[in-house]
Amino acid sequence: MPVKVRCPGCRKVLTAPDAARGKALKCPECETKVRVPEEGGVDAGSSGKGTAKPKPKAKTIEDDEDLLSKLDVSKAVDTGASMCPKCGAEIPEGDEECPKCGVDPTTGQLSKAAKRRKSFKGVDPKEFFKVVWSDSWRFSMENFVTIMLTMFYQLFFLSLQGCCSFMVQWCSDTPPKAFWAFLGVLSSLAYPGWIWHLNVETIKLTTVKKSSMKDVKFDMFTAFALGIKVYVWILSHIWMPFGLLCLPISLIHFAMPVSGKAWLAPFTMKMSLKHFGAVAYYWVIRFVITLVASIAPLIVVAIYFKPITEAMEQANYKDIETLVWILVSIAVITCAFLSSFMEVFMARVNGLIAFYFRDTLELQTVVAEKKYVKKQVKLDKFGNPIKSPLAVWGPVVFALIGVLLAGNVICYYATGKQHFLMPDSWARGLGILD
């Protein structure tokens, strides 16, 4: 009688003749050897063996009770971990709350730390004090190019101020003196303006969880304008005791779309007192880094002190002059580098204050939409717009002033320091008359 077997390779059912029992046939589809079971056997493809397995003996209730009586339940309990009563997550040994939902397993309620975290919209402000040093250091190393550019700007504008100061003293006429003095004032504004721009842009990057400053570029006119802004802000806060210590809070508000509160000394003082720990820590960090930057030049002087002393003992004045110039150059470059590093480092610290305390700093991040209404123009009886006195006489007045100034300039060069339509006191003040 034919027997049906299943190929273990392609799972196809084959029909084998009765004479093939106990032998192996080759599958016509996949050429896998298929063993045909003997009489009373099982399908080779189903079990993989020629004989059927004996059925296991069914367990009885007496067997289960005997097994439980031999089991030491105290040794089977896992005392190294517990289960959260709320979410069922495993709580590691030593933890006082569930790592997933923050529930205290002993009370079944949220722990104090979890309640505090949930009270904030964003991150926990306490994390600021844990990450401020490591994060600011990593940020400074990542933006080392910005540190070097800041050092270059500092040395360049300090040199430019020195040159302008020399030219003011060297020139004898008033117009050249005024030009070099004006250039010197501009150069004194550029570097503070760049530091201000650096802080504001770093705060913006930190609040959106970014760290690359490759897109922060130096712009001369922006630096001049922000330099003026620096001194105006100082005037707005210097009248209040310790008002200048509110600088971190003001810079954070200046980085926001709406920055009006940054000019108000009472408001910035209130925010500084509210976040006294973070602001005080900011100034402590700045003091520590400033102290390091001040000690570094002394170390340089100590290194070169012995060669200078030996040159003085040998009365080799040429060597002394060379060593002094080397000493001064190294000290100045060291100070410039460390101060530039400090500015980038502290900009990140200020950004971290904005990031971790943004829920309580009363920041204005949304600009109110303004609807502009076109001003109605008054018309005369003929339908023509009525011009105001300023619109009628303004161009005439400005034209007369321009002609007067141009005429004085032309007369000055044409007649040899003469003038017209100008009081003698003005002319003497401008250096035209002796």
Account of the protein in words:
There is one protein chain. The chain has 434 residues and is mainly alpha-helical. It folds into 4 domains: 3-47, no CATH class; 83-119, no CATH class; 127-356, no CATH class; 389-429, no CATH class. 58% of the residues lie in helices and 4% in strands. The protein has 14 helices and 6 strands. It has helices at residues 44-47, 61-70, 73-76, 112-119, 127-142, 144-170, 174-207, 220-237, 247-254, 265-274, 276-313, 317-356, 389-415, 424-429; strands at 3-6, 13-16, 24-26, 33-35, 82-83, 90-91. The strands form 3 sheets. It has a two-stranded antiparallel ribbon with strand order 1-2. The chain has a two-stranded antiparallel sheet with strand order 3-4. It starts with a strand and ends in a 5-residue tail after the last helix.
Distance N to C terminus: 140 Å
- Poorly predicted runs of 5 or more residues: 41-52, 73-80
Helix/strand order, N-terminal first: EEEEHHHEEHHHHHHHHHHH
Please tally the helical runs, counting DSSP H or I stretches of 4 or more residues: 14
What is the SS-derived class?
Answer: mainly alpha
Q: Report Rg.
A: 43 Å
